[in-house]
Amino acid sequence: MASKLVMIVVIVLDLIAFGLAVAAEQRRSTATIRKDEEDEYNMCVYDSDISTGYGLGAFFFLLASQILIMVASRCFCCGKALNPTGSRACAVILFIFCWITFIIAEACLLAGSVRNAYHTKYRTIFSEQPPSCETVRKGVFAAGAAFVFFTGIISQFYYASYSKARGAFQPYGGEANVGMGAYK
Question: If we measure between CA atoms, which residue out of 136, 3, 113, 115 comes closest to residue 62?
């Protein structure tokens, strides 16, 4: 049977990660081109950089959630073998999808955080082309949030299926002790 405490902690960690990813999408850095005090140079001025912290927070909360699920299920490869039931087949499929969505979510969150933290530092002379003020594209953190949501749901189903397959009754075919009968 699946541990309710593990499931509740994983749900809380996934919800925090989802909320932080959504907040990171809402608070992405924006840049404006401004002239310096002497009107000789154009430069990029960035606003708040809080979404980098939100993205990294979501990254680490999702990582903690995944580690907890994998430790609780012994990463599906350690421990005794699971009983050959439909739950085991379902757990195998969900294990694979859980890792795929986890890797995609972590990649989106990390790439968005790194890209959001990158600010161009150069400036150009007034007569040249204005500087390219690099910012993170809209939707990178949103994609990360969507995959955090999918990872949370799939990891819950994976853990429940794994626990059901681990705890299933497996009858023993032979007798475990020496039979006692009448001696003639």
Answer: 113
Query: Quick check: helix, strand or coil at residue 9?
Result: helix
What tokens were used for 157? 């189903």
With b meaning 16 or more CB within 10 Å and e meaning fewer, what string describes 147-156?
Answer: bbbbbbebbb
- Phi/psi region, residue 28 (left: phi>0; alpha: psi -120 to 50; beta: rest), is beta
Is residue 75 helix, strand or coil? helix
DSSP SS3 for 31: strand
Helices 140-167 and 4-26: angle between axes, nearest 10 degrees: 170
| pLDDT, tens digit, 9 for 90 and up, residues 127-169 | 566 666 767 778 889 999 999 999 999 999 999 998 888 875 5
Token look-up 């990254």 returns 59
The candidate with the shortest Cα–Cα distance to 31, out of 110, 146, 122, is 122
pTM: 0.79
- 131's tokens: 């500087």
Q: Which of 53, 52, 65 lies closest to 10 in space, CA to CA? A: 65
Q: What is the pLDDT of residues 30-42, one digit of tens each?
A: 777 777 776 667 7
Q: Which pair of tokens denotes residue 172?
A: 């023993």
Structure tokens at 75: 């990463």
